[in-house]
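Dear Dr. L.,

I hope this message finds you well. Following up on our conversation about the binding site, I have prepared a predicted three-dimensional model of the protein together with calcium ion. For your records, I am including the exact sequence and ligand specification that went into the calculation, followed by the structure tokens. Please feel free to forward this to your student if that is useful.
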Amino acid sequence: MQEFVKSRSQLFELSEDVGRNVSDNPTMGEIIDRRFSRREVIKGALAVTAINGTIGGLALESASKAQAATPAFGFKELVAGVDDKHHVAEGYKAEILIRWGDPMFADSPAFDIDKQTAEAQNRQFGYNNDFLGYFPIEGSNEHGLLGVNHEYTTENLMFPGIDEPQDGKEAKFAKLTAELAAVEMAAHGGSVIEIRKENGAWGVVKDSKFARRITLATPMDISGPAAGHALMKTNADPTGAKVLGMVNNCAGGHTPWNTWITAEENIHGYFWGELKDDNPQAKGFKRYGVPGNWYNWGAYEKRFDILAEPNETNRFGWIVEIDPYDPASTPKKRTAMGRFKHEGADMLVNKDGRVVAYMGDDERFDYLYRFVSEGAYDAANPASGRDLLDKGTLSVAQFAEDGTVKWLPLVHGQGPLTAENGFADQATVLIHARLAADALGATKMDRPEDVGPNPKTGKVYVMLTNNDKRKPEDVNPANPRGVNKFGHIVEMMPPEGDHAADMFKWEILVKCGDPSIAEVGATFSSATTKEGWFGMPDNCAFDAEGRLWIATDGMSSKSTGKTDGVFAVETEGEMRGTSKRFFSVPVGAEMCGPCFTPDGKTLFVAVQHPGEEDMEGKPGKFANPPTRWPDFAEGMPPRPSLVVITKDDGGAIGS
Ligand code: FEO
Ligand code: CA
Ligand code: CA
Ligand code: CA
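The resulting structure of the complex is given below.
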């Protein structure tokens, strides 16, 4: 019998092993770790002044105000462990809201694990829920819509008989027929569901007029500077402005005008074929890892074959904006925000009215980006947001050891971004944003995932999940550990709250990992318990009080004896750097999509790929999965699901 090869999650990791960023952007051989150590941070404001003479009195004042305004977390910490169920802190309820395969429309067929068809999946909740965003109906905290991403599919847990992922292209895809590929395509994309709290319990509204499935077949507009560009045209779309579907939508965001932002991440895996050096697009393909050959869709749909339709790949890897309130609306790929492996895009309205989005490119040694709209948003006129994301400036971050970070604009004609250097126009700069950022000398990061601006304090938190390929000689001040197995969180401070400024200050909030093992070099506060520390920060959210909550991805059960979960992290005052475990996923799952209702009384989370690996790290099999969460029914595999969390006394979560 052949050995198990890799679960999809492991494949995601592996895809990054190739070290795709071969630019020679400088790394600082010598780190000045002292400046960013936890010890100095807790000495408080005086120490900060001494370390960084340039920080203004105003900033210190607002820091102490934030401290006073942010109440500490009050819940009793959850004990960490590994089993086949989910767990939440005492005094809270965590209930299943919707599962993969659940019907979404009046005509949806009931889920039948043995008779899956694309037709049925098109009318049912998709697979591997990741991001979710809450969109209130008439301002309600108890009635709204959820926009949910379906990032990818896990065939060995979805389909009976496909339970042994094999090495080698032929063996791997031998059983994945055209029919199953079509089910996979229908299980990707997104869902809009209507939810309501009645008699104290949240539920999905049946036969909602808002319900929507978005799949690889959903027509979308390509808008912004790259729309209509020669590199975006295909045989099916000579206009270069229309595309079918979105893929590998990981995290996302929520615009100030209440639309749903969904981010295309590992798009390379869906393209198929062999890349030769004489391919005219070889440079761009290599930098983006195309073709990844993770799926065999190219065998059935020509557009996923890079030789048949080389430009189709340029039409994926974007930020997509969707109006969740209008199921007939056409999603738009906003090309002004650049093409890379987008984790998400968290947004705010800057004090001058412009909209600022922060975005991570989740790959080892890739970059942190910011988009600033050209126009301003007028809250009194939500329609002013309609195409605001089509014009603006995309920049990439360059961190310096003096505690500043500079935003370098990706603008055609400026600096090295010229035709002589391969950037014919602004569309080319955006389509090949990674190559443009290489040319500008951006800082190579440890896999930037969510980047969350705190709406209360204006500080920005960057989740850097890990980077086991960074060597000690490759470190830089903002990524000070090689090997970085557990990740860290960078905190950025825009000057006087101006998120459009050219330069910010930054600090490290916490270096993650087990603080009891000295070699790990973790810097959680001493108040953090053995249950409370975490690694691999991925998604983040702020509650109504402006407190930071983090979801993790990759605390493998075998190496840590824990599962992924939701953690509450103190960012202000004496308790800064203290983390507490609040929620745990079942074995093999990743924690995604934490999202609060505006009143902070409900927390929605997404449990992704439950059972994908067992406690030994081996891929789960359909026939004998490590968990059958959440149904626990014989013959039913684990099902990715949304979970809704409320406090028993009806109060705010975490207080
Ligand atoms: Fe899909 Fe960056 O996690
Ligand atoms: Ca994910
Ligand atoms: Ca993620
Ligand atoms: Ca991740």
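In brief: Residues 130, 151, 250, 590, 592, 608 surround calcium ion (ligand 2) (CB under 6 Å).

With kind regards,
A. P.
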